[in-house]
Structure formats: C-alpha cells, structure tokens
Amino acid sequence: MVGYFLKRLAMLIPVLLGISVIVFFIMALIPGDPAQAILGSYATAENLANLRADLGLDKPVFQRYFIWLGNLLQGDFGSSYTLNRPVIDEVLDRLGPTLLLAGTALVLCSIFGLLIGVITAVKQYGWQDRFFTLIALLGISTPSFWLGLVLILAFAVKLNWFPVSGMFAVYGGGDLPDLLYHLALPALTLAAVATGVIARLTRSGMLEILRQDFVLTARAKGLSERKVIWHHAFKNALVNIVPVIGIQAGFVIGGAVYIETVFQWPGIGRMLVTAITTRDILLVQGGVLVVATCYVVFNLVADMVQHLLDPRISI
C-alpha cells in the first residue's frame, strides 16, 4: 500500500510540471499588454517600458518561465498587478469558497448519481429506468451556466425561495443556515452534469455485475435481493465507479468558474475571470495552478480508494 502510494505521488511531479508549462505559455500567447492594461490607454511609452521592465516582461518568454518556476519552487507565486498583494494570499482566500461549492456539488452528484444508477439497473426497462435515464441525459446535455440562469429565474426571481447571488446576505446573516441558503442553487447547478455522468456509468457497471455468475449464485443461496444488490453487486461495481467520481471532482472544480460567475460566488473561478479580463498574468497562473493541483490530488485520492477496494489494481 505504501509503495503504491509513493509511486502515485512520484507521478504527480511531471504532471504538475507539465501543467505549469501549459499555464505559463498559454498566458504568454494571449494577445494584449499587461502594462498597457495596468496603466491605461493614455500611458506614455516611457512609463510602459519602465513597467514592463519592473514586471520582467522585457525578457524572453523562456527566461521568464524559468524565473517564475524558480520562484514557485520557493513558494513565491508573485504579486498581483491589479490587487497589489501576494498571489498566494488572494488564491488561498478564494480557495475555501471554491472547495466548499465544489465539495458540496461532489457529494450531491455522488449520492444522487449512485442511487439513480443502481435504481435504473435494477429496474431495467421499467418506468423508473426510463424516467431517471431521461433525467440523467438532460443533466448531461444541459450547459451548467444556462441551467444556473434558469434556476435563478425560477427559484430566486419568480418564487423568491433562494437568493440570487452571493455567499452570505448583505445585511445580517453570516451563519450556517444563511450559508446553506446561498449554497443550494449553485451547488445543485454544478452537480447536475456530474450526476448524469455518474448515474449512466453506475447503471452500465451494475448491469454488467448483475449478470455475473457469483450474483446468480448469491440469489440461488436464498439471499435477500437487497443484500445481493448492495453487498455483492454494488460493492464490486464501485471499484470501477470510484475513478469516475475522481474525474467528476475535477469537473466540478473546473465548472465552478462558470457557476461562480453566474451566482457571484466569491471563489477562485470568479477571481480568474476578473484576472483574465485585467490581464493579471501572475494571478491567473497562480489560480489555475492551484485548481489543477486540486484536480490532480482528487484523482490521486480516487486511485487510492480504488486500490483499497481492490488491492489487485496497480499502476
């Protein structure tokens, strides 16, 4: 177990290094001048040149990358041009709300996806199968940002059941009920697509397991249908479903960019949209790198859980 974990951990190093290369050079290729964005359209050529030199933008792109990587290895993510504060401080302040939103969505999509998948497999070709399959397909096919706008219009504007945006009430609130009240719509929106994916793959995995000989043997021994489904079939199907949940964890973190913008949630996604608009390169690079690291860590945890469920699985 320890050896497997160390091997998986060692594989993260080239992955994170590759992510840093991709993030840096994509930002370097985006049109626009950060110095111009900071100083405005009326800045003089001399002021622009001085600012580019201060920011290191006058150096070749490869040299800038290695300088940034060297600082990164020392824990220095640089400073935000627009916020005038360390990037790591801003990212960590925003990371909590993003993980809360993504974690809640992941729990919801895992619970509902697994339940729907099991029900549709057990009731194959029944009305439950057709109904929940339709719901899952709608969840997969519906753009999350559009679904968010529809839910805001229906449940916030028309029915006034939930708030339109934000993490807490502007006046008053600030406690746990207020947080859950604001979290409901964005978490449901973010969980919709992942729920459909998990449900469909759970259904196919359960159908395959239910046709296996050991399941037929368990039924022949007179075991209850509930024990056959949950103790024998579901337990074996879960081995192949756990990595899917790990992938969906990365999806909900990435999808938080859209949802945080729609619901004005104060997380990394909303921060990245603002930073890209203002050409705050270091803030974008730091934010994307942290999000990508979270995605990689979630997948590592999923692999470890899969290995615990079935020790025969190796790299």
Give the secondary structure arrangement, pairings included.
Elements (H helix, E strand, L loop, with lengths): L1 H28 L4 H6 L5 H11 L5 H13 L13 H36 L4 H15 L2 H15 L17 H35 L2 H8 L4 H39 L4 H10 L3 H29 L6
Helix pairs in contact: 1-12, 5-6, 5-8, 5-10, 5-12, 6-8, 7-8, 7-10, 8-10, 9-10, 10-11, 10-12, 11-12
Q: Can you describe what's shown?
A:
The structure is a single chain. The longest helix is centred in the last third of the chain and has 39 residues, at 225-263. The mean pLDDT is 82. Helix 1 runs antiparallel to helix 12 (281-309), helix 5 runs antiparallel to helix 10 and helix 8 (176-210) crosses helix 10 (225-263). The chain is globular and about 85 Å long. The protein has helices at 2-29, 34-39, 45-55, 61-73, 87-122, 127-141, 144-158, 176-210, 213-220, 225-263, 268-277, 281-309. The protein is mostly helical and 315 residues long. The chain has two domains: 11-73, no CATH class; 88-309, MetI-like (MetI-like fold), CATH 1.10.3720.10. It contains twelve helices and no strands. 78% of the residues lie in helices and 0% in strands.
